[in-house]
Amino acid sequence: KKRLEKLLHQNEKLASMGRVLSGIANKIKTPLSTIQTSAQYLVKRFQSEKNLESRFAQNIYDESKRLGQTVDNFLHYAEPKQPRMESVDLRELSREVLEFLEPETRNKRIKVENNLQDVDIQGDRELLYRALYNILLNACQAVDVEGKINLQWSDEKRELTIIDSGPGFEADPRKCTEPFYTTRDYGVGLGLAIAENIFKNLGGELVLENAKQSTGAVVRIIFH
């Protein structure tokens, strides 16, 4: 009874927090969109020049995009979207996510090996993009300069595996999918929580592990 009461209290607290986050995120979204659009204009304006202004413009644009993803995470956590099932090319989707993360991988000279071939799965394309983005962003932030990230697919298991060369999960990997749990000085701890909920709603499963043969984190996404 005490355990259920504690769980109910926690759920009520998370629901209240979700409503607050939704209100804050909606207020941030409009001015942030203006900043991002203006920064994008400046990037194009200075793209032919290799000077301080061009670097500042690119930094503002990259950081506004990252902040935009954080705001979207707040909104998605507070107001989850109902999934729409459709055929999704997982290889193409992963390429789009990695292209969006190119500033992260370029700045740290991360080597990404995307070994996915033609893979069609059933799911909501927008939700799958968000989940995969959150997982790969975590991997980019975890690895050191010149680190590695590897994407593999198993037809037999219907499983996508993402392996990085970072230090691995510091705590029990299961804790990393709890809302607002983070071991970093920055970030809000919603990325993996949202990813897990998305895969559950799509009939899949998210499994987090530490690599057994070497250092690094292993994320397995199982599509049932």
Give an account of the 3D structure.
Helix content is 53%, strand content 17%. The protein is built from six helices and seven strands. Strand 6 (204-210) and strand 7 form a beta hairpin. It is globular. 25% of the residues are buried. The model has no long low-confidence stretch (mean pLDDT 84).
Number of helices: 6
- Order of SSEs: HHEHHEEHEEHEE
Rounded Rg: 19 Å
* End-to-end separation: 34 Å
**Which percent range describes the beta-strand content?**
15-25%
Q: Look at the structure and give the mean pLDDT.
A: 84
Tell me the structural class.
Answer: alpha+beta
Give the uncertain stretches in residue-range form. Answer: none
Q: Say how many strands there are.
A: 7
Helix content: 40-55%
Instruction: Give a short account of the largest sheet.
Output: 5 strands, mixed
| General shape | globular
Which strand order does the major sheet show? 2-4-5-7-6
Labels describing this entry:
6 helices, alpha+beta, 224 residues, globular, five-stranded mixed sheet, two-stranded antiparallel ribbon
Précis, in short:
The chain has helices at 2-46, 52-78, 90-100, 102-107, 125-142, 191-201; strands spanning 86-89, 111-114, 120-123, 148-154, 159-164, 204-210, 217-223.
Task: Describe the secondary-structure layout.
Layout: H1 2-46, H2 52-78, E1 86-89, H3 90-100, H4 102-107, E2 111-114, E3 120-123, H5 125-142, E4 148-154, E5 159-164, H6 191-201, E6 204-210, E7 217-223
Parallel strand pairs: 2-4
Antiparallel strand pairs: 1-3, 4-5, 5-7, 6-7
Helix pairs in contact: 1-2, 3-5, 5-6
